[in-house]
Amino acid sequence: MVESHILIVDGSAAEAAGLARALAGDGHRVEVAADPAAAAHALRAERAPDLLLLDLAFPHLDTVGLLAGLEGSDRRGLLPVIAIAAEGDADGRVRALRAGADDAVARPCAPAEVAARAAALLRLRAAHQRLREANLELTQRSITDPLTGLFNRRYFEYRLAQELERARRHGDPVALAFLDLDHFKRINDTYGHATGDAVLLAVARVLQEELRRLDVCTRWGGEEFAAILPNTDAAGAMVVSQRVLRALRSHGGLVAPPLGSDAGEVVRFTASMGVAVHEPASSHGAEELLRRADGALYLAKRQGRNRARVATAAPTPTRTPVVRSRPAVA
Fewest C-beta in 10 Å: which of 33, 55, 110, 180? Predict the structure, then answer.
């Protein structure tokens, strides 16, 4: 049995000691609070209890109010509560259960029974935690690119809408940067898709190292990446872009053999970037911002690659961002 931390808040020292012995005998770590301040401190601790035994008649403590407060807290879903009521106090047990207790017992408590009830609630707690973790993992997978670990395009679109709305409310600019690897098809054709994937991973690591924590870095698709840079104007976005490009140029490259050969050679890679900025006063939305950043990226490719370009304030005529086909430019 995995050790659980159980907090006993009980006004009867003798009964608390008997419950503690029974619970400790089941392999739990037991803490007894002797006063309201100790109980509050234990409940606020970073390592909160896994289960609470609460005496409804604990002196100078609003136990029903405490239960209601736990019900509204983030931790309540992972903290089962067994209420201890006075003998014959059915109304107290009902109030406790309605206020958020998961179980209720009457005095005199049979320690073995309370320990069994605690074990049952801890099993439910463990099942709840497993379900919660599974849901978190599913959520993470739904917004993450499986190869690079960056956010995916679905999450990018959600966050871009959020950032544009925030910019509208607070009057801050938002920059969008597209990065596209140069001649990536040549890498795949020469060295194979496994090497291509390794290059994408290397670029993802560079982006994670060079961007701020508040920036949203995404694998847009294929060999293309996108980053949302909140509260960033055109000059700031170009500084970030040049930093990323310098890091890629100084990267030592990867060693891989060409297809059909056993002799490894260094595979180096560069990228082109396009930047567009959404100003707070702009009436254009996400689609126009994407189109302008894409146009700036296309210009960087046409002007020789391995460089960054920023879009002008006026809309740049180019293909829509929904169809990601760039004619004869890689």
Answer: 110
